[in-house]
Fold each of these.
Amino acid sequence: MNLLRRNLLRNTLPLGALTLLTGCDVSDSDAVQRVLAGFSAWNDRVQAALFSGQRLAPTFPDHLAVKEFRYNAWYGPDKAPNLAPDQYRLQLAGLIADKRPWTVDQLHALPQVSQVTRHVCVEGWSMIGKWTGTPLRTFLERVGADTTARYVGFECADGYYEGIDMPTALHPQTIMAFKLSDEILPRRYGYPFKIRIPTKLGFKNPKFVTTLYVTNQQPHGFWTDRGYNWFSGI
Amino acid sequence: MNHTSDGEQRHPIPTRVTHWLMALSILIMIGSGWRIYNASPLFDFTFPDQLTLGGDVDAALALHNDPGVASAIAWHFAAMWILVASYLGFVLWGVLSGHFRRDFLPVTPRSFWQDFTAALRFRLEHRLGHYNAVQKLFYWGVLLAVALMIASGLAIWKPVQTYPLELLFGGFQGARLVHFLVMAGIVLFLIVHVALVILVPKTFVAMVLGRASEKSALAERNLPKGNVS
């Protein structure tokens, strides 16, 4: 036992010094961030290759849909934009043939589908909800968008901005959600609509969309500009 | 530990390289994983920020309104490639070179029980170049644990593209729970593993330089042969 203790003591000292090193976190160094960004770009390519335009996200029975959906933003619900239905216009830009703006009534007149799907947050929590709206694909075709372009981008009334790859934009479950739990999308959840994408993490689902554009240049994203992965498919 | 003979331990280059790459990537995965866990804890506790990987929390909050989770995820999804590659390399080498068959087998319940009770009484012999049954089971256990981490991690990373996979873990949140519990198991393994290396430092020498023998150890320290009790 004595020997054991002496060995432990003698050999632990240099190891203790080594563990002190772990206290210095190199994450904030520019060089490390560049390497991590390189891995993230590689992960974008892997995810785009893994993504299937046909594979559907799992859907769930209606009774599993949460009625009081979790509110999530970097500001409180009282600070959410309050867009007036009669003044709101959805602006279109980029590689779109018919750029006439859309009113809420015009949007609501589009064909709609319902889905009970799971919202997965990058932080790890998940929640099942029921969303109803128009497949983004239907809308893009209606306005004569160039669907051979690479990206669709969104600008939002709360200062948020996001963008997705065209294969995801054309995925049958990617919708402009006008309703949550069978009710007109409440203000705090993104009235008049949020882009609901069950094949992406939650932050790739922008709310309060005021401008939609089609482009070949990868759009920036609010959280991806803050270090999160761009593709963020699930 | 190939080409073993009693009293000498040898680790060829593939074993050493994949061992240390796994060690590095597992430490990164644990540190960044704890920061990610803190963003949405499964249990009623969080990890102290100093033990997590992802940079200065307050600076990230001021700069990005984000507690360094973005950096932690970037670490996690970078190191996962190194972990998967080195793990596959280690397993492939272990199987093809005969390392697993020679050194990790056989493990019988009887030999495990004998060695286990001997270890508890501090009477377990340790010969360099020879693994006792407890060690063998330990190594099988951690190899299985890493495989479970990769599978549950894939279910969490790609719950849509790999959808049925999460059902093995009881759904998406079940996969998160398994990912967490197996992580805890790996942390326990690391604690015991490092403690034993501290007790028998020649094993560390062998894993770095490729070779260590008991003879020089005996000569240096004048220890009675093969018993640390």
Amino acid sequence: MGILVDENSRILVQGITGREGGFHASACKAYGTNVVAGVTPGKGGQFFEDTVPIFNTVEEAVRETQANVALGFVPPPFAADAIAEAADAEIPLIICITEGVPVLDTVRISRYIENKPVRLIGPNCPGLITPGANCKIGIMPGSIHKTGRVGVVSRSGTLTYEAVGQLTNLGIGQSSCVGIGGDQVIGTNFVDVLKMFNDDPETDMVVFIGEIGGTMEQQAAEYIKKSFGKPLCALIVGSAAPAGKRMGHAGAIITGESARAESKVAALRDAGAVIIPTPADIGPTAKTVFDALH
Amino acid sequence: MKIHEYQAKEVLARYGINVPSSRLASSAEEAGQATQDLGGKAVLKAQVHAGGRGQGGGIKVVNSPDEARPAAAAMLGSNLVTHQTGPEGAPVNHVLVEELADIDRELYLAITIDRDFRGPIMLASSAGGMDIEEVAATRPQDIYMEPLSPILGLMPFQTRRLTAKLGLTGPSAQSATRIMNALYKVFTELDCSLVEINPLIVTGQGELVALDAKLNLDDDSLFRHTDLQELRDPAQEDELEYRAGSLDIAYVKLDGDVGCLVNGAGLAMATLDVTTAAGAMPANFLDVGGGATIEKVASAVSIILSDRKVTRVLVNIFGGILRCDVAASGVVKAYREHGINLPLVVRLLGTNAEEGRTIFAESGLPVTFADNLNDIAAALGQTS
């Protein structure tokens, strides 16, 4: 059911006693996610909302609760340490929501986890959700989602909600929605997620949302052309952005021709993707493709 | 964050990289004196956060202090326009007066983050002194790249390979190796996003000197480099962008008349695209952020309204952590404070959207509501 998470996912929240960590741990629980532990150094022995045990270390939390997903809200100066601690405990899926992690920290962390049996999503991402498993591991509003057969992958947060909102409004549900993050260097890229959607029997098609900056969309286009076996609708935002300016996301900056929206759109079109003309057309475009499949 | 050439050279010198002797001048008189101190001949370099200064008249060789004074006077206080600045240019408040160099060869050396490699790479080229993007486009074979392991760092075999490709031997190769190692130290210790020496010259005596330097810092790392924060020069940044940045609001000034207030970078980019597709021109990119308060939203709207080109404001909020009623109250507050009545196109969705709409409806402001992105496009057509 969907990708990356299912009913057996047991969530550990790093930074659960912080303002954001607490708010979202609560919202994840309310959605039905199995939040089994929190970690805040120095606050071990306490409980979050009277039910979720808090531990001083990830190692201890895993031993006591068999947590298998780490969701991180740790502030930027300590985010790398939190990811490393989760990786050291071999938590297979680590999601880092934190925005503003120094890029060299992410670079080093990427190398540290390379040979460990773990996957990092983010940093600077909204997380992921699989509505069919009542599993929301991130900061997206749960209520806009609907169980279904369309996979969504995006570099953005609110724009993913916009996309999901449009799909749900047209009665199109989602298998899983993954926000991979808006930074220059991230743990899981488009191709990684597309491979999982390709292998997921419950995903019939994918809505893909890229943006200016870097060449990750072109790499995805190469993979789609060669190996992706499902229909895919693609939107690239930022065509109205000027060159050389960071558009909110650290990674959304035009540094050369290939970083422009037009180059990415061209690559995806060439790979056989159905191009979504403007952000207002995400739902209608996906619906046309979806209806043709069913 | 960008810093000036003279600041970048001070950093490089601290790490043992040779830079030309120089003085910083902020008046014609100082420039004349500095030229005198440097032996009567010098090159004047306008200090702005932009490349392409040569073509814009920001670099001038002077043969005497008497030549230096009027040349500096012409630069100081003016706005230098280059292909990297907007048409309004960047203000020149300082001139770097530098000794003339004896140039035998011009090389290029830089380190930046390569997104595909997910780590730093060192770039070197024999085609120094040129725009490296142009070199990359026209003769990519002349750029040599070494991906740098974040664990091992720059290795000796890599510096040997690069110096050989640059055609350096003997003492020049040794100097180049020292400079490469120092540059890697600068990049990692200071959390740079780019450090570039262009050109790195080889003098007639075979010495290597950093003739120009550029150093950009990773904004997200500044919390651990309080000393580097002081190198910021607000005069080089757009005033509104600087104000927004100090409030932790992501704002980029554009040329149109539709002020945009959005939460989330992706949705903000999408809003610009929708606005443009509707035939209107956005005045700005603005991501007010997730946890904004009424005050922060009001400040964001104030920044939008400070742009005199703005004739209407588009509010596009997908409420999550940021509640729509908070956003609405912030907008209304700023409108009241500014005492203005510019048309508003408002689209609220998510947390407390209904409450937000009520606040707008009861405010008496000229609001057109939109339910979705298509409505926004239609409403922009009506308010133009």
